[in-house]
Write the structure tokens for this entry.
Amino acid sequence: MASQPPAALRLLPVRAENAAVAFAGKSILRGIDLEITKNTRTVIMGSNGAGKSTLLRLLHGLLLPTAGRVVNAVGEPVATQVLRQHDAMLFQRPVMLRASALDNVLYAAKHQVRGITMPPPHVSALNALQSVGLAELANRPARVLSGGEQQRVAFARALVRDPEILYLDEPTASLDPQSARQIETLISTAAGRGVTIVMTTHNLAQAKRLASQIILLNDGAIAEITPATQFFIQPRSAAGRAFVEGES
Amino acid sequence: MNPFFAALAGAVDLITHADQKLVDIISLSLKVSATAVVIASVLGLAIGAIVSVTRFTGRGMVIAALNATMGLPPVVIGLVVYLLLSRAGPLGHYGLLFTPPAMVIAQVILITPIIAALSRQILEDAWREYQDQFASLGIKNASAAATLIWDCRFSLVTIALAGLGRACAEVGAVMIVGGNIDGVTRTMTTAIALETTKGDLPLALSLGIVLVAIVLAINIVAQWLKSFAERRYG
Amino acid sequence: MKHFMQSKLQRIFAGAAFTLSLALTQTPAQAQEKFITLASTTSTEQSGLFGHILPIFKKATGIDVRVVALGTGQALDTARRGDADVVFVHDKAAEEKFVADGFGIERIEVMYNDFVLVGPKADPAKSTGRDIAAGLKNIANAKAAFVSRGDKSGTHAAELRYWKAAGVDLDTTKGAWYRETGSGMGPALNTASAMNAYILTDRGTWLAFKNRGELSIQIEGDTKLFNQYGVMLVNPSKHAHIKQELGQQFIGWLVSAEGQRAIAEYKIGGEQLFFPNAKPAMKKAA
């Protein structure tokens, strides 16, 4: 998993430059300026409706900015980048094809331009399932697995693409505590191998455990971007102080 | 004996002593309807898939039109196909009127909108569910549609079977374009209509019961398939 | 899994193509068979006459006759559009117009059957007898329920002629008692049976009809009730695809001694339904 694409194919750093998103005239995000750099673990926080998921989607390129731009290291807009295969996203509710766990992972592996240094898709798929601890369930229909297991299949589906960046949208919000811990461990392990993490969460304790930096959103705008160690002790913004106090 | 029970006994007799003529009628019905369903499934699925995964101006109109054509009276379809295929009509050259292919054409027109509208619904629901995942994996619409069709295959087969049931049970269109010719275009439903006009109500009802049994069997298979798939694949 | 899926889809399409070819193999085989399409009336088809004579014809000539049974008006219309090779119906005036308009080559008389007036056994209109005009007059006077085909068929045309002959002007006298069903002979009989009403029907359909209820024959044997059938080849100069030779062969056979005998032979419950009366001159011509 640690193999990196050649320097010329690097996505990072991903930059948002004065990006904004509006739906039907309603502003969701505005004035977003930020940079995701290599080997960081960014956690996006904020109250409901602050625009966390939208920001994540914007960075991952599932949404086009209605103003400004979001670009990768070579200046391509992320939504149309040819390097789509080098990032991946985990959703709050994993969506499984009506096929085995292995086939779900294989599907992601096959729909990707694979570097010559990467093993054949089915080997990658089995390895990915192994690394999330599901090798034994490889042939079980994915949809009959438990929620936690499905999220781990989704994790394997992300890992199999050997991502440079992994986006996670509330990855543990629908899970029981034990499954949530397993996912957290997988996130830490991936980060340890050099995968850059960008995630949203409601869970302050989880953010404390995982984050290297915090982006706090307040009503569609960035209130502050602060190293995690500082954020939980001394937020820079008024919104940050209100948030940390309200949550603790 | 009560006429209804007489008819029921007659039906049992018809089925157990399946004479060649009855077998021919049933097999023609099934062949025509199955052929129509295969063609209509290919067309309907293509339409349903395109409408469900693409966004274009007039899409709402197309969906409304699909839903509306689901309710087209078969007699109207029969009449239109009759006029098209008649020797005096634009496709008269092919001499298809009063042949099984004419009935297939009418049934294709009858059930394609049904399959298109229902598969559009199913594929669009699935599309909503998978859309972000596909985008995240960088999968293009055409490939996504193929995946969705495969993923929803059991529900889609159920739709095709519903189409088959509808096609088998239809009389208005096949009567007009087939002509109910003995041994050539006489299907279960046109035979029922004929026996009714001859006042042979028990025989008509017997044929009706055979037809209902077949349609019921088709629906049981569809139901079973669906629940099997749900148990197996979730 | 993409390739895996494509191969599955390919297999599904291959299976579909296979089913399709299976289902349609029947058609080319049939297309090679010698056949003509005959537009005729429900009375000839539903009385079982064709079921009796067509196999004999096929045995003699190898020609399959595909019968599309419609009302006379509809049968003539089908022929006019070129959708039948031969038309065999029973409405002399309409047939003569069909020939005069150039759609048919020649009208050849083949046989006749007769109409009967059927009504409730209790005969509320006191219509029973041999005189159709008197009987209909009584029905109109009594305003007894009467079911009409109302479908421009030969039988409908005949019925309207009889009302006229009876001096009953339907336009002024028809009311709730006179029901136009707009349907074939069988459905009209079903309606009459359910309503216990009078109805004019050809004898053949009546004899083959099973759902009689309280109905029985009230008037029969009036020579005015005779019902002549004519056969015509559809004019190939109007429609080039008409199977002139096979059609002529069928017409020739119908008026031949063999064909006429086959018609006379057909009986239901010992009763002859159709009486061959092709003119000898016609037989020679054929």
Chain B has ten helices and no strands. Chain B has a mean pLDDT of 89. Chain B touches chain C at residues 31-32, 34-35, 38-39, 41-42, 86-89, 92, 95, 97-101, 104, 143, 146-147, 149-150, 179-182, 184, 194, 196-201 (CB under 8 Å). The radius of gyration of chain B is 20 Å.
